[in-house]
Amino acid sequence: MKQFLHSVWRCSLLLLVTAGSCITSFGQNTESSSFFEAGISMGPSNFLGDLGGNAGKGTKFIKDNNFPMTRFIFGAYLTYQPNEWLGFRLAVNRGTIGGDDAIIKGKGGYEEARKYRNSDFRSRITEAMILAEIYPTVFLEGDPTDVWGRLRPYLAIGAGIFHFNPQGTDPKSGAWVDLKPLHTEGEGFAEYPGRKEYKLTQVNIPMGIGAKYFLSESMNLSLEILHRTTFTDYIDDVSTSYIDPASFYAHMPLAQAQLAERMANKSGNNGATTPYAPGMKRGTATNNDAYFSVNVKFGFRLGRGGNDYSSTRCPVRF
Q1: What is the pLDDT of residue 308?
Q2: Torsions phi, psi of 213, nearest 5?
Q3: How many angstroms separate the CA atoms of 281 and 270, rounded?
Q4: 113: exposed, middle or buried (C-beta count within 10 Å: 0-12, 13-18, 19+)?
Q5: What per-residue confidence (pLDDT) applies to 170?
């Protein structure tokens, strides 16, 4: 699967570059006001889920963001705009997210239970998405020579697919190990029929806001905040409750069962005198995981129909 995703990533980038070259040629020979834009993006990414968080009850909104766990995400995109106020973007991104209960600053509230849990994770994220971009201020633009006319805020919403693979640190060796094969919450075990194995490829709903600044007719910079709502609670491999460790030994070889037991319940590794017992809460299954990124995008307009730029309301006529 890992090799397959790397191939998808390389092919997607190649397709974007190839398509951009073809579209540039096409745009120079059509009589239309539509155009294409290609570019790259990068920026910090953060996880919002069961692990980590701040004081009080855990939430899936930005209130539980942990800045020390900030990682980065990189990508490329191709956008088709039939006109100035609407665009359709195809994007591929790759990055990392993570969470860690150890960094929680306890204040004697609900967060203490999460800090006591003492779990951590990291995951590589590979995603592809299609988004609609809406530029509402196009209809309000005045003098095109005004520098403020070069700035366009926009809204973005769409649908995507992403692949993840949660890993956690082994308290015995300190090494990062894959968590899904360990069935840490009994997923797929007969003793826990309500807990199905989760899939590492899932659907997400990206939505966000941004602002695009035109450096010239053909180049622009954008700053964008993009939140991903997901339909899984297992990006961090934490969702429900602790299971009886005996189940691991009933379904796995000895060495794997011992590893699973260590990874499933780390509450005894932080000096706790009474580790969490089977049946006690490990996560909150009613709140699916989410993640977000703050992207800086650099884009090029590849071509547009017609040569009469004055016939459009482009904000960057100098």
Answers
A1: 39
A2: -115, 125
A3: 18
A4: middle
A5: 96
Q: What residues are paired with 214 via a beta bridge?
A: 220
Whether this model's pTM surpasses 0.85: no
d(CA 211, CA 198) in angstroms, rounded, equals: 36
**pLDDT confidence of residue 183:** 97
The residues, ordered by sequence, that sit 6+ positions from 301 with a Cβ below 8 Å of its Cβ are: 35, 36, 37, 217, 218, 219, 220
* pLDDT tens-digit series, residues 40-99: 999 999 999 888 765 546 655 665 667 788 999 999 999 999 999 999 999 999 999 999
Determine how many CB atoms are found less than 10 A away from the CB of residue 169: 17
Instruction: Please compute, for residue 43, the number of CA atoms within 13 A of its CA located in the half-sphere on the CB side.
Output: 18
CB 47 within 8 A of CB 98: yes
CA-wise closest residue to 49 among 158, 160, 130, 164: 164
**Which residues contact residue 118 at a Cβ distance below 8 angstroms, ignoring those fewer than 6 apart?**
101, 102, 266, 267, 269, 270, 272
Look at residue 284 and tell me whether its pLDDT is greater than 70. Answer: yes
What's the pLDDT score for residue 270? 62
